[in-house]
Amino acid sequence: MDTPAQRRAGGGGGETDSSTHLAGAMACVVGNFLISLSLNLQRRAHRDNTEGVHYTKLKAWWVAILCMFVGEIGNFLAYGMAPASLVSPLGAITVISNAVLSKIILNEPMPRQKAVGVVLALVGAVLIAVNAPAPFPLDTGDKVILEEEEFYYSIMTLRACIYIIIVAVVAFCVANPLKLPFLVSDTLRRDMVVVPCVLCGCAGTMTVTSAKAVFNSLSQAFAGNAAMFARGDICWLTYLIIIVAVGSILGQVKYLNEALMRHGASRVVPVCVQLPH
């Protein structure tokens, strides 16, 4: 019989029960509402900054960042307690709450088309969440793997590596740090809302994966199994993922503010939510 720290790949051991899934979904809803509140407060801070002070010196901006920090913690907990196939569609809550908050905080109009779009987004999120597919099983044949090895094997696959490379290439082409003439120009990046939102989405997709990994590692450590932080052959991946998580969150804040400084929250939020993350 396998010990509690062992499981056969593709098996059903250690599945989260429905009550934990519900708690994860609620954490996601609250977190996305706070993130939407943060985006609108940031936009308000930028709009009211008539003196041209750097936004990091504005008190309102720091209040918005605090809301985003708490909201991201909610999403962090949600991805740890529920599968991504359930949590990700609930990102539509950001669009729905943004439609209301942008009217209250920024006095942006809410035409009939916008209200219909909010209703459709809510219906779509519910349908996707209810019919969320089961997580793809990890296939290692008949090999029995330790609990701490499960995420390591899921990351060290060809499919995961190709996905990470694609995200990195897209981010490089859009950010264009070397100012290459055949990639995205600074003018296009300044005028089109989708450009900083794509960069935010690239950072967001790394945040989702790394948050899930860090939560699982911490859960195992608090349960008495600190192998993800102590085993020499796999702990390097844990610390690398922590660095990626911090960097991707900072990237999201940077590119969100870049978009909000030039475009309204009613344009930025729907674009960011529709991008992969």
Q: What order do the helices and strands follow?
A: EHHHHHEHHHHHHH
Strand order of the largest sheet: 1-2
Percentage of β-strand residues: under 5%
For the largest beta-sheet, the strand count, sense and barrel status come to: 2 strands, antiparallel
As residue ranges, the low-confidence spans are: 1-16
Secondary-structure-based class equals mainly alpha
Number of domains: 1
Report how far apart the termini are: 38 Å
DSSP helical segment count? 12
What fraction, in percent, of the residue positions are helical?
A: over 70%
Shape: globular
**Rg, nearest Å:** 20 Å
Question: Strand tally, please?
Answer: 2
Keywords:
disordered N terminus, mainly alpha, 277 residues, 12 helices, single chain, 2 strands
